[in-house]
Amino acid sequence: MERTDRATLHRSLQWGYMAVLTAVYAGIRLYLFAGVKPITFYDSAGYLQPPFTWRPFAVPLIYMLLGDRTDRIVWFQVGFSALCWSILAWTVCFFARDPLLRGILPTVILAFSLSHVIAQWDATILSESLSFSFFAALIALSLGIGKRIAQRRRINGTLWAVSLLVWVPLAVLFLNTRDTNLYLVPFAIVLVWIFLWRTAGGRTLAALLTAALIAACVWQQGDADAKHRWGPSLAGLIAKRILPHPEATAFFVQRGMPIDPALLRRGGPVAADQILRHPGFVPWLWSRGRQTYTAYLLSRPFESQAEVVDHMEKSLDAAALRPYAANGALRWDSQGVDGLPTWLDERFFFHVHHPWSWLAALVALPAVMFLADPARRRLYGLTLLTVAAFDSQLFVAYHGDTIELERHSLFGNVLFRTAVLLTLVDGYVFSRAWFDPVKKTRREPRRPP
Fold it and tell me: 89 and 29 in contact (C-beta within 8 Å)?
């Protein structure tokens, strides 16, 4: 009876703490965005067009449902973002087993979402806000489903319905906010199979979820090909990163790329519009450009990856992202509550020096714990997958465009900070498991008398 009363008290305190934390969080968000004006950019018009015209359909569809009114869009993004991040915080609170982590992690998650680099996009007519919100909701739903499956050791009708009727549409919406989100699908498929492989009925569900994700990727990739969304970026990459280097240029010319010899004689980078003037370049770009560029990156895998890491310090520079909200009447560079997002930026989005050392540490530490603590390999494996995911996003950002590197690397930047947090959590859990005298005694096998 005493144990039951204590558990009830802990649960009540947990609910009360989360309710107060969520209320404070919602109040701060409303205060920060009071009087904000919608922030538009040169490419905002593409998101205000009807869906299925140029951009991936998710953001234009939601904007269309909101009447394409920018003021209404901003407040929807503010509210939807607060809802999704709050759901994630609540889910993590009840997912974590350790009492200390139950209190710290929800606070960290909500504080992270209030940082300048994350919150500012709610005021912009771009895809970042909805992409982050869908991602937070998708992680929360995945954790909730995973916990239910772990408790029941099987998949009932409710879990089937939630997985196929809620998780899949949410994943499709997330993927169709930005084309670069497609590169997270392989990691999602790996996680699906890891958590469902040993569950009764889990392999069938994993196969269905995998098929749904692959079908979504195939459709979205076909849509991008039909509209040539990657064309302008690829032309800029060839102009600025290929033509200045004779060996790289020869690789492309050998595969049929037409180019004006006068441009090659000039040396150095050229403007993309200069190579687009060649009558045969655009047809080659549509038919063989992307395959040739992919083959070029694969022909030098170590150099391609090294370029990403060498530019990681610039890719993860949060200070370069703050001016995006400069014309939206955000008062976030002042003191008090108004300065909270910038203060949080300095804590979460610290400047990354020595990127090679960071990458080595984020791989080595979870890998050591993965080998030394078999009982918690799923946790350490999740961290390693997050490291691989942030590296893939930075790879796509650097090798996918030549402009706005910090903005295109934003999702990789968030995953990098997530990997750092997960590594700290791994270290805490690992130390508790190995150095706690009580748990250590339980883990040791009994000696025969």
Answer: no
Please indicate, yes or no, whether residues 281 and 356 belong to a single structural domain of this protein.
Answer: no
Tell me, yes or no, whether 37 and 65 share the same domain: yes
How far is residue 141's CA from residue 156's CA, in Å, rounded to a whole number?
16
Residues 321 and 405 grouped into a single domain: no
- Tens-digit pLDDT profile for residues 336-358: 677 888 899 999 999 999 999 99
Q: How many domains does the chain have?
A: 3
Question: Binning pLDDT at 50, 70 and 90, where does residue 329 land?
Answer: low
**Tens-place pLDDT, residues 133-180:** 999 999 999 998 888 887 777 787 888 888 889 999 999 999 999 999
Say yes or no: 12 and 145 in one domain.
yes
In Å, how far are 193, 205, 341, 379 from 370, measured between CA atoms?
18, 27, 35, 8
Helix axes of 185-196 and 377-400: crossing angle, nearest 10 degrees: 170
Q: Distance between CA atoms of 236 and 197, rounded to whole angstroms?
A: 44
Identify the CA nearest to 229 among candidates 431, 434, 57, 85.
57
Answer yes or no: are the C-beta atoms of 260 and 278 closer than 8 Å.
Answer: yes
Q: Which domain holds residue 371?
A: 302-316+352-442
Helix, strand, or coil here: 269?
Answer: coil
Q: Is residue 386 located within the same domain as residue 275?
A: no
Cβ 388 vs Cβ 415: under 8 Å: no
For residue range 104-127, list pLDDT tens digits in order.
Answer: 999 999 999 999 999 999 999 999
Q: State pTM to two decimals.
A: 0.91
Mean pLDDT, the chain, rounded, equals 87
Q: How far is CA 329 from the centre of its chain?
A: 27
pLDDT of 183 strictly over 90:
yes
Q: Which residues are 3's β-sheet partners?
A: none
pLDDT at 331: 65
Report the helix count and the strand count for the chain, using DSSP H and E. 25, 0
Distance CA(424)–CA(407), nearest Å, equals: 26
Same domain? For 334 and 256 the reply is no
Largest CA distance in the chain: 89
Length of the chain: 449
Contact 125, 330 (CB under 8 A): no
Asked if residue 170 belongs to a domain, the reply is no
- 255 plus 295 within the same structural domain: yes
Q: HEC string of 57-105?
A: CHHHHHHHHCCCCHHHHHHHHHHHHHHHHHHHHHHHHHHCCCHHHHHHH
